[in-house]
Amino acid sequence: MVLHPTKNLDHYPIYKSDFENIIKNNPDFAEMAQIETPEGFESMMKKELLFDIFIQNEWAGYIGVEPASESFLNGYEVYEEFLISKFRGQHFAPAAQRHLIEKLPDSNNAMLYGTIHYNNVPSIKTALKVGRKKIGQYIFVNI
Fold first, then answer.
1. Beta-strand relationship, 50-55 and 73-83
2. What SS3 state is found at 140?
3. How many structural domains compose the chain?
4. Which of 18, 24, 63, 98 has a CA positioned 20 to 30 A from the CA of residue 32?
């Protein structure tokens, strides 16, 4: 697996189609994750924080972050990590996060963090496999 900084969004239609197929086959997934917009990807791309994932020289997905600061967390927030269906379920996601960490600019005390829906078990497992820790949990209730 290799990550290359994304230079254009030529693969966006593949990403969008695959994401929409997940939601079609599993409507509950729409509550767990949302498709990233081209504008969101362009923001990450301009900062050189969006990466194309390649597995055996084949485009496999995107992984991207934004610089962020929330409460006591400073560093990079994961905005997207998506492998197309051909590569999902084969344990490539933890490797993608490890490669991402290697590609991020050096920053004093920077952390890699993000919000993961409690039902998104594959993403939680991936985060834990690369050493990320649960440090907060939120429950929202309608009043």
1. unpaired
2. coil
3. 1
4. 98
Query: Contact 120/33 with Cβ under 8 angstroms?
Result: yes
Alpha-carbon distance 72 to 136, whole Å?
A: 11
Between CA 125 and CA 103 the distance in angstroms is 22
Let me know: does 14 contact 61? Beta carbons within 8 Å: no
Q: What is the pLDDT of residues 114-125, one digit of tens each?
A: 777 777 777 778
Which of 32, 8, 89 lies closest to 55 in space, CA to CA? 89
CATH assignment at residue 34: 3.40.630.30
Query: Residue 142 falls within a domain, yes or no?
Result: no
Average pLDDT, the chain: 88
Residue 143 lies in a domain: no
pLDDT confidence tier of residue 74, bands split at 50, 70 and 90: confident
Q: What is the pLDDT of residue 72?
A: 75
Dihedral pair phi/psi, residue 22, rounded to 5° = -60, -45
- Confidence grade of residue 10 (pLDDT, cut at 50, 70, 90): very high
Which DSSP state fits 71? T
Residue 36 burial (CB count, 10 A): 20
